[in-house]
Amino acid sequence: MKTKSKTEAKKLAKAYSYNNDYRDVPIYIIYCNRSENYYVDTNSLIRLWERLIGYYINGIFTSEKDNL
């Protein structure tokens, strides 16, 4: 799913993480520098021009900065 704002992407990822179909599955938030969009996906594969913002698992957000 593609969004224009980080806030909207976080809301969408959190909603997906509460869904029973995605229980215990990380929902990643990825920012694309080229298109200036945020993507919400279960695939954490990112390209050189993309940056991982963080992910949700069961409604709990983990920032990528926290993992450094």
UniProtKB/TrEMBL annotation:
GO terms for molecular function: DNA binding. It comes from the Bacteria. Keywords: DNA-binding. The keyword DNA-binding applies. This is DNA-binding protein.
